Amino acid sequence: MGKINRLKLAVLVSGSGSNLQAIIDACAGADYPAEIVLVFSNQPDAKGLERAGNAGIEAKSLAHKGYPGGREAYDHAVSELIAQSGADLVVLAGYLRLVSESFVKRWQGRLINIHPSLLPSFKGLHAHEQTIAAGVKYSGCTVHFVVPEMDAGPIIAQAVVPVLADDDAHSLGQRILRQEHQIYPQVIRWIAEDRVVVGNDGRVAVRGSQSPDFAQINPVNPQG
Ligand code: GRF
C-alpha cells in the first residue's frame, strides 16, 4: 500500500486547544490526508502546547507581549516559523490575536479560522454572549478562509445548534464546541482532498458534497 501524501498543517492556538486536540485525533487516522507539522502559540503557557507535546508534535511559542517592533514584526516572525515548518495550510484554532494584513496576505487561501457563531452574525469576542443577548434560537460555528477583515472571508462550512431557553454562554459554548470538533477536521480533510473551490463571488463549493434540505423549528411544542 502506498503512503498517502499528507497536507502539512501549522495549527495556531492561544488557549485550551480542544479544536487542536480534535485535529490531532483526526490525524491519527491511517487514511486521514493531513498531518500537523507545527503547533504555535502566542501564549507560552497555552494548554495547546502541552497537547502537542503529548502527541509528539513540534511545538513553538513566542510571547507577543513586549515583542520588539510591534505586531508587524511579531507576525513576520510567526510567518517565518510557519514557513520553516513547511506547512501547506495554516489553521487558526482559538488563536486569540488579530493577525496583521501582511500575515493574511502571505497565507491568503491557505489560512482558515473557526468562529463560534453563524457568521456573519456575532463577529469578534464574546460570540456566545452576543448570541444569547440577541435572543436568536439557533447558533453554531463557522469555518472560513481568513481575509484581512476580522471574521469575514469565504465560508466553507457551518454547523447549527439550537439555543435552549435556559442556556448561558458556557452551556451554549460547550454545545457549539462539540460541533467545532466535528467540522474543523472535516473541512481540513476536504482541503487536503482538493475539493474546496472558492468562486469569483466568494461563495465556496465543496466538490462531491451534499447540502441537507430540511427545516427545523425551535422551540417546538409537543402538544401541537
Ligand atoms: C473556539 O470556540 C473557537 O471557535 C474560537 O476559540 C475557541 C477555541 O477553543 N475561535 P479551543 O482552544 O479549541 O478549545
Please provide the ordered H/E string of secondary-structure elements: EHEHEHEHEHEEHEE
CATH superfamily of the largest domain: Formyl transferase, N-terminal domain
Order of the strands making up the biggest sheet:
3-2-1-4-5-6-7
What proportion of the residues is helical, as a percent range?
25-40%
Radius of gyration: 18 Å
* DSSP strand tally: 9
Estimated share of beta-strand residues: 15-25%
What would the principal axes of the Cα set say about the shape?
globular
How many structural domains does the protein architecture include?
2
Termini separation comes to 56 Å
| CATH C-level of the largest domain | Alpha Beta
Taking the sheet with the most strands, its summary is: 7 strands, mixed
